[in-house]
């Protein structure tokens, strides 16, 4: 059985995730809102629920702006992706949700062509 890594805290990036999430709470997209809320609850229980993204695939803007040392993605159904990183603050582990985006925006952010 895989070992879990519980979070001391889960926060959103101020410039990308938090504005998106606040706008979503005021919208009528209850399905996406519920998927994100379930994801955030699951992330609090285990920071490793996502798929680890290989370093060579990290968007440069994430490295430059957030100075990430790890990156994970999590699929919300088939249409949305969430990216997050794990920060260490002493013994505490904090999940930082960087961005939630639809699949097309994810492909563009990660420079995937198809």
What does this structure look like?
By secondary structure, this protein is of the alpha+beta class. The chain has one domain: 2-Layer Sandwich (YaeB-like fold). It has helices at residues 17-25, 30-45, 60-66, 103-109, and strands at 9-12, 51-52, 72-76, 80-89, 92-102. It has a 5-stranded mixed sheet. The N and C termini lie far apart (36 Å). The mean pLDDT is 95.
The level 1 CATH classification is Alpha Beta
Instruction: Indicate the CATH topology.
Output: YaeB-like fold
CATH-scheme architecture: 2-Layer Sandwich
**Can you tell me the overall shape?**
globular
- Following the backbone from N to C, one meets helices and strands in this order, namely EHHEHEEEH
Overall tally of structural domains:
1
Distance between the termini: 36 Å
Quickly list its features.
alpha+beta, 4 helices, YaeB-like fold, 114 residues, five-stranded mixed beta sheet, single chain
Give a nutshell description of this structure.
The protein has 114 residues and is α+β, with helices and mostly antiparallel strands.
Topology:
Blueprint (H helix, E strand, L loop, with lengths): L8 E4 L4 H9 L4 H16 L5 E2 L7 H7 L5 E5 L3 E10 L2 E11 H7 L5
Parallel strand pairs: 1-5
Antiparallel strand pairs: 2-3, 3-4, 4-5
């Amino acid at each position: 059985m895989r070992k879990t890594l519980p979070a001391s805290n889960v926060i959103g990036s101020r410039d990308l995730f938090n504005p998106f999430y606040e706008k979503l709470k005021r919208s009528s997209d209850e399905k996406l809102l519920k998927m994100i809320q379930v994801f955030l609850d699951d992330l609090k229980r285990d920071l490793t629920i996502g798929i680890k993204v290989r370093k060579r695939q990290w968007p440069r803007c994430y490295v430059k702006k957030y100075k990430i040392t790890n990156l994970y993605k999590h699929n919300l159904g088939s249409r949305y992706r969430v990216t997050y990183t794990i920060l260490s603050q002493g013994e505490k582990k904090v999940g930082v949700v960087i961005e939630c985006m639809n699949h097309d925006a994810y492909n563009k952010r990660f420079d995937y062509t198809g």
